[in-house]
Amino acid sequence: MFEKTRQRAFVAAVWIIALAGQQVLAETPTVPAGAYVLDKTHASVVFSVSHLGFSFYTGSFARFDASLEFDPNDAALAALNATIDVTSLQIPAPPEGFLATLLGPEWFDAGTYPTMTFRSTGVSSTGHNTAKVTGMLTLKGVSAPVDFDVTFNGGYPGMAGFDPQARVGFSARGVLNRSDFNLAKGVPPKGTTMGVGDAVEFVIETEFTGPPLDRATQ
Questions:
Q1: Cα separation of 205 and 55, whole Å?
Q2: What is the pTM of this model?
Q3: Which of 130, 135, 180, 216 is most buried, by the most CB atoms less than 10 A from its CB?
Q4: Integer CA distances (angstroms), 185 to 52, 57, 89, in order
């Protein structure tokens, strides 16, 4: 008797939670479509590459910018343009002169090519909050296609008295081959891991701010 009563209570609780969730979703304001700009205080670009097959060496870029055309109802209408300052490369505890070597002619050649750029050419939905972004990355004077997977983490149309502009957030992950961009220095011979891997994994976290909160709703 007690067990049946507990089961009924559990089912009732599940229904209440589900209905409450539906109500919250129904009351969630719609994120507006339009032009969005990167919030640099809430963004990061991190990459990792195999080192001798023993570990993944991690670095990041400190300075970058991006603009986004975004429609929450149609992923295909999204358009992204981004620029990264190659000279802002950061690596953990670099030996003396190593960072300068990486930025020098044998690697990034940042004196000649101080920026890399990305321009999206297509966005396709892969789930209710995920998409695949394809585009052209230009690095070290070479342009080649790159794609990555993006998760839309949510957003709001603005908050009166706190954050008056729309805000959206995304997480992105992808892999590119650095040799496609004239960055083949140290790539291991085929069949070995004795070097610095060709495949570069990258993780990007971003927030963008967009159109201001409709004053009629404030």
A1: 23
A2: 0.83
A3: 135
A4: 14, 15, 17
